[in-house]
Design brief:
Blueprint (H helix, E strand, L loop, with lengths): L3 H14 L15 H12 L4 H18 L32 E6 L2 H9 L4 E4 L6 H15 L5 E5 L2 H7 L3 E4 L9 H6 L3 E6 L2 H8 L5 E5 L15 H11 L5 E4 L7 H5 L5 E4 L1 H4 L4 H14 L1
Parallel strand pairs: 1-2, 1-8, 2-3, 3-4, 4-5, 5-6, 6-7, 7-8
Helix pairs in contact: 1-2, 2-3, 4-5
Length: about 290
């Protein structure tokens, strides 16, 4: 039977987050009544198990500090165990607002977008040939030379270090395999992908240069480990990770840009919106004007 406090949390936030389509039985790790109520409510609100666990622990911590309040969503970093800044051993910093962030398939696209004035670009080059990867990474670094664009290399951190790239971007599956100490020691910036509270807390412990959050909307470009997060959850994430440069990614186009920016993120990553555009340069100008006006 649903506890009154769990029902109160659910009732206070269901209009904001929606409700789960399937009922999930809570797996509790402690007996604290606030924790148990919050865990049950967050599962009913559609959060996956690991994220509901993070929220329940945060609700317990905040209630111990301030008293129980079903209407107040946890968003103070201290209740999630997030350490204050500055931090020792953090990765090199990057601008708080990275602006329009283009994720691109090869060095030719990187150069084209950099020359068109995109402030942040990422090379996402897929190949199993190490020589082809090295050529493409070095070509991308050469392509942004003389422009103001900041270049991040997706996945290929070892080549990025050798070639002297500005930064590296890694997915969750890459964190355990990459030599993070080597990336930090080389002075490269590090961006990390996340898809919810548990992954955000995991990467926060590493103190990266920026955190990417998504997929905000449905995307066909890759298989996503979680359902689309939506702008409402994105706003909650942004308030929690307010000290980081934040990048929203996943299915974002000009029509969806205003509600994404209302979340408080300082950057929006786009892929298909530029690469598939009839005139990418024209689309860039539209995005830049929209970013300036939001």
């Amino acid at each position: 039977m649903t506890a009154p406090s769990a029902q109160a949390i659910f009732d206070a936030h269901t209009a904001r987050f929606g409700a789960a389509t399937d009922e999930v039985a809570p797996a509790f790790t402690r007996d604290d009544p606030v924790y148990r109520a919050a865990k049950e409510a967050c599962l009913r609100l559609g959060f996956i198990e690991c994220d509901a666990e993070c929220l329940a622990l945060a609700w317990q911590a905040r209630s111990a500090r301030l008293g129980f309040d079903a209407t107040a969503w946890p968003e103070d970093p201290v209740d999630f165990g997030i350490q204050p800044w500055p931090r020792d051993h953090a990765f090199a910093p990057c601008p708080k607002a990275l602006g329009l962030y283009a994720v691109l398939p090869d060095a030719t696209w990187v150069g084209r977008m950099a020359r068109a004035g995109v402030p942040t670009v990422q090379l996402r080059f897929k190949s199993d040939d190490p020589r082809a990867v090295e050529r493409e990474v070095r070509a991308a670094i050469d392509a942004v030379a003389g422009t103001s664009s900041l270049l991040f290399i997706n996945d290929h951190w070892h080549v990025a270090i050798d070639a002297g790239a500005y930064g590296v971007h890694l997915g969750q599956e890459d964190i355990d395999e990459a030599d993070l100490d080597a990336i930090r020691a080389a002075g490269l910036r590090l961006g990390l992908s996340t898809h919810g509270y548990a992954e955000m807390l995991r990467v926060d412990a590493l103190s990266p240069s920026y955190i990417a959050m998504g997929a905000v909307f449905p995307t066909t470009l890759k298989d996503m480990p979680t359902a689309p997060q939506g702008p409402t959850r994105l706003a909650a994430y942004a308030r929690l990770l307010r000290d980081y440069p934040l990048v929203a990614i996943g299915g974002i186009d000009l029509g969806k840009l205003p509600e994404v920016l209302q979340s408080g993120v300082g950057s929006v990553a786009v892929v298909r919106a530029l690469v598939a555009a009839t005139s990418p340069e024209t689309e860039i100008e539209r995005f830049k004007r929209a970013l300036e006006n939001c």
